[in-house]
Specification:
Elements: H1 5-22, E1 38-39, E2 43-47, E3 51-62, E4 65-77, E5 82-94, E6 102-113, E7 119-122, E8 124-130, E9 136-143, E10 146-147
């Protein structure tokens, strides 16, 4: 068996290109559902004129059970005082109440210059609960340690 460096290089470049195309936002890899995909309530947080964050999830339900959850994060920044950094944390966990619900969590990060010229970080986050029935609600949301009502 011969090892082809060209084939390996082409496959490696294709993998890198695919990865580069799917890391722009959370949830870039779409889930395919055999049933209609459901969409949650959106969470919008921001510091007007500096940055904005929107988070929602889509999910699949088959035979009364949630089978997949896909996060969707969009962001905006002014480019001078604040810049988007990353989706810092993300998790999906079952709610242990027998309802079949799941909590979906995301925390993002913006790097910002404070009014005094020092560096700062803004971490908007949200937890969205989704149910097999198609219902959703925002369990909690906030910026850093501050819960936003």
């Amino acid at each position: 068996m011969r090892f082809s460096h060209r084939t390996t290089a082409v496959a490696g470049c294709a993998a890198l290109l695919t990865a580069a195309l799917t890391t722009g936002t959370a949830g870039a890899e779409e889930t395919r559902c055999s049933t209609p995909e459901l969409t949650s309530t959106s969470v919008q947080l921001g510091n007007p004129g500096r940055w904005a964050y929107t988070y929602k999830v889509t999910w699949c339900v088959e035979n009364g059970e949630i089978t997949a959850i896909t996060p969707h994060v969009t962001h905006e920044d002014d480019g001078s005082t604040c810049a988007w950094v990353t989706n810092a944390e993300e998790a999906q966990t079952p709610v242990r109440d027998g309802s079949g619900a799941w909590n979906a969590y995301n925390m993002a990060e913006f790097s910002c210059k404070n009014g005094d010229g020092t560096d700062g970080i803004a971490n908007p986050w949200a937890i969205i609960t989704v149910w097999p029935s198609g219902a959703s609600s925002v369990l909690r949301k906030g910026i850093g340690d501050v819960i936003v009502e």
